[in-house]
Predict the 3D structure of the following.
Amino acid sequence: MSRVLWAEKYAPRRVSEVVENRKAAERVVEFILNWHPEQRPKALLLWGPAGVGKTASVYAAANELGYDLIEVNASDKRSLEDIQRTVGAASSLSSIVKGGRRVILVDEVDGISGSEDRGGIGGLVEILKKTVYPVILVANDAWDPKLAPIRNYCELVRYNRIRSNVIANHLAKICERERVEADPLALKKIAENARGDLRAAINDLQAVAEGKKAITVEDLNVLSLRDQERGAFDTLKAIFYGKSAQGMVIAVSSSDVDYELLMQWMCENAWQHMSHPKELANAYDALSRADMFLGRIKRRQHWGLLSYAFTLMSAGVSLSRETSKGGAPKYQFPSWVKSMSAAKARRKTLEDIAGKIGEKCHISSREALLSYLPYVKVIIEANPEEGARLAKWLGIDPEVVEELVSKEVAERVRKAMVS
Ligand SMILES: Nc1ncnc2c1ncn2[C@@H]1O[C@H](COP(=O)(O)OP(=O)(O)O)[C@@H](O)[C@H]1O
Ligand SMILES: [Mg+2]
């Protein structure tokens, strides 16, 4: 099922709809309208934190002015080369004469690597030298040393974080259009939690409110996963970019994310920091040994072993890297935890099941969710009749089983349960 992101659905269509950074967006319009191939500087560089309307204001401006927007993926060398061929005077004066009104957008320029010859920053400079169209670049940090060669060609336009009351207002408007009645306090909390990132706030709102008639502060619980995610990002960074083994261990022991979930994060993301099979093999070896320690610790309550586990899962993994470079990974939420939380209703049901497993097995529901539920699922799938007995024992309804397994299997479980 595809779903429309509210951040897209309610993206500004006109510059007047850009909140907080409207002046900056108006500068974009002016720049496009007054642009001339002889002018200096030749390009705009929009910069600022994520989710504040940089990309959106370029789209709004082009839409409002009736220009074609050509977006270049700066990390894709091929894409840059294509543009280099088409922006220059020789090939395109004719299209100007034809009245082709175009704007070129190069988004996330700080994501590109500096070195390649025709691509990368050098490729961008070539474009900026010869373009006969207005070019707008977007970056998070305009002062990244890597961007020095292109800064000379650019007028810098700064975008700021969105104040939380402005975010809350914006969310209220979206709720109105979605016909969701929202408790202002809930919106205020979402807004504050977003730390100036309007896109994050809209995504949070959608996660909480989609399909509902009303939302209250209680509904915000589903967002705790997202906060976990932030905490995990920070810990992973501290582990992989740490300078000392000790620092890496401290990052784990002081993390808000519980260490079992952190293990999952490490398993899911280690590859992003290591491209060589041997490095990865060592990393997973360290993780598997950490896992053994954790198992022993839990079974025998040998908490003294915890520091071994922490060392293996942090320094043990991070220092497996020999030659691979740091890079700028996009960490991924542990995949199966994520797929289990894709829909919040479903998640709630899963938590209920986990609670029941927890009661029966004398473990926490979190542990049940992470370590037992996957096996319950496997058992039911492998043998629905046995699954029915298990479901009865746990006190799970047949409807709930449907959240775990396919309809066909759930149907067999239901039959077995009533017979
Ligand atoms: N200043 C803003 N005014 C209106 N909507 C915004 C603003 N900033 C962000 N948004 C919303 O968040 C989404 C993402 O914003 P975007 O411009 O892509 O952020 P970035 O600054 O990271 O490029 C937009 O599609 C829009 O819905
Ligand atoms: Mg953007």
